[in-house]
Amino acid sequence: MVEESMSLNLNRIKSIDIFRGICMSWMILGHLFNWWLKAEQSWIRNIMTMIFI
Q: How far apart, in whole angstroms, are the C-alpha atoms of residue 23 and residue 18?
């Protein structure tokens, strides 16, 4: 019983860590796109915005 709850807890923590990693990667990419993109390449930023809004 205790081993099952420990396993479920570790799986839950792992899934939260994966989600946090994806969010942090998206945030870093968003900031890099803001710094690197020229005005004529703003369609890439618009696609990123449309995915999550």
A: 9
